[in-house]
Specification:
- The complex is a heterodimer.
- Chain A is mainly α.
- Chain A folds into two domains: 50 residues; 40 residues.
- Chain A is 82% helix and 0% strand.
- Chain A contains five helices and no strands.
- In chain A, helix 1 runs antiparallel to helix 2 and helix 3 crosses helix 4.
- The longest helix of chain A is centred in the C-terminal third of the chain and has 41 residues.
- In chain B, helix 2 runs parallel beside helix 3 and helix 6 packs parallel to helix 10.
- Chain B has a single domain, classed as Spore Coat Polysaccharide Biosynthesis Protein SpsA, Chain A (Alpha-Beta Complex), CATH 3.90.550.
- Chain B is of the alpha/beta class.
- In chain B, strand 2, helix 3 and strand 3 form a beta-alpha-beta unit.
- Chain B has a seven-stranded mixed β-sheet with strand order 3-2-1-4-6-5-7, sandwiched between helices.
- Chains A and B meet through helix 4 of A and helix 3, strand 3 and helix 4 of B.
Chain lengths: 116, 234
Amino acid sequence: MLLYSILFPIISILAILWFFYRYLKQKQSLATVILWTVLWLFVILFSIFPLASERFARLFGITRGLDFIIIVVFLVLFYIIFRLYNRIDILQDEINKIVKEVAINNEITLDDEEDE
Amino acid sequence: MSFEISKEDKQATYVILPAYNEATRIQPVIEEIAQMGYNMIIVNDGSSDNTLEVIKQSKRKYPDQIHIFSLIINRGVGVATQTGFDAVFMFNPKYVVSMDSDGQHSAKDLDDVITPLVKGEAQAVIGVRPLKDMPFTRNFANAVMNLLTRIFYKVNVSDSQTGFRAITADALKKIDINARGYLISSEFIREVNDNNIPFAEVPIQTIYTPETQAKGTNVVEAFKILLQMIKHQF
């Protein structure tokens, strides 16, 4: 048995447990946990049975199993970047709201200086 | 223009000046506007130089005409202008103008820019810069931005990237500005158009110096604005 076929399933199981732990702590939605669990289960499957990737690859008209895995990894990475970009965008808007509120509620007067 | 703005109308006009690291340039701009009799809302956009101190010095000279608000961190010209647009309603304005604080715009154009509002000919005005005075790269970026504003926001204007704009307080209440950076120029025009606010274009002077040329809509900014315009379609 090759090293990756032991290592990847262990990492995957830890990752799944971590996602469930975050779900229990209400830090992750159920949909996200399910999505990531499915993904990690595929990692386990392809680590133990590498030839299984070829069957999936053929479903999508791709000949090599490794190509299929690389394409899937790219898609997942793009999705993560998109989610992060969206999250940062929302955070930027929230920061702007706070910064604006603070400024509007604290008009700078010359009395402020005299008090100092 | 022969029309003269009354003292009352000037007192009911608030000029919003977003300022980011303008310590060396802002003072003459503020003082010229104050001498003309207009009120100001100056928004320090988290400057790292002593812009805020310079603004305070001017406030000591014109305490009743200058109102200062300061963003604790730099958030961009869009957010600073939005802050001014929100804060201005604390002072019960009739007309609101926003212009650059780096000396690129001439305070002498203020009267001309608000004239269509005072006369009731329009409820929003954009100050249009003469293309012949613009450096080539700026001119090219501006032409591209005008085209993009036409494609994405369906408004045809001569200068979509002008920072000199005026609007009545009633019209300002109707528009919703969310842009963080230089997109605010196109967004202002889109909002005015979408809300069927009658608007006019008024020619303005532009004073280009190496410092003012370093700011504003260059090719990189134009690209960022394009991305945001695409995003706004969804």
